[in-house]
Amino acid sequence: MSDPQQPESSVTKGPAAARPFRRFIGVDLGGGRGKNTAIARLELGDGEAGLTVAEATIRQGHRGTGNHEGDALFRDEVLVEYLRRWTDDETVVAINAPLTLPPCVRCTLACPGIKVCDVPSVAWMRTWAPLLLPRGKSDPSKPAVTPYTQRATEVLWTSLGARPREALGQGTGPLAARATYLRRVLSPKLRLHENLLEVYPRATLTQLFGSTTERRTRHGETQRVWDTRKEVLAGLREGIDYAYVWPEVVVRNTHVFGAVLCAYTGFLWSRGGWAGPREFEQADTAAGIPLRDAAAALGDAWVRDGWIYAPPPAPSA
Fold first, then answer.
1. CA separation (Å) from 70 to 73, 76, 186, 192, 246?
2. 47: alpha, beta or left, given left = phi > 0 and alpha = psi -120 to 50?
3. Were both Cys, which of 14, 94, 123, 217 would link to 199 (CB 3.0–4.6 Å)?
4. Has domain 21-96+200-273 been given CATH number 3.30.420?
5. What is the pTM of this model?
């Protein structure tokens, strides 16, 4: 299998130590022609100083966002310039969009068909997806996985209840295309698994607060949704303060809220030394779901195939 967009990574294959990042940029990515891309910049102070939301906005120059430069939406040129300007050796960028394409789309080999393909991630999905994912009762012949729209990371997280969007699922294609462009134009300044992460705020919320609270940050009466978001931000384990950002700006815009969670996930990754699916190998899982065996069987294929970073499942007792 050939993957021109993903060179061999120097990411640590085993459990990693904490990483020395101090700036965490979150990007809730929207389409390049739209107005829904939001960014958040969290800064870690020196000594006992904590984590601060230094910037959180859906456009440059908006009051109460910490950004006072110009007046522009984060379309391609603006977003690229922003990331280049703020990224240094102590910065990690976390994006809520697929940063790798599904294996069948990346592959340049002659295709023998999914049933006999021996590309590692495809063979893994063919073996493990039927055991990990629920099958629809109305159509038992429906395939458990389609490796031209899905990746192994989505299979593993779905089995845990996080249910991320498929990399090329309905409505995700434009985001995946834009994310692929951003990876190319920002390389080698940003490197996947090293200072560039794919994240999913819903998975982060589900792992930290449970699925019920996660749903309440999206659904319900507007004031209750905002109040739930405030409770979530106040309940983050390390806590966050605000510099020139109005908290109301964060909780009242779903994209800005998502960008802050992206950045915070990058902070947790930096502190926790997460190592991809290896974090799943000791997971406490529901009876009958072979998540630990499936994670171990994936081996190092995730480095090339891509990974969604979120707080790992609790280890079994």
1. 10, 16, 22, 30, 19
2. left
3. 94
4. yes
5. 0.90
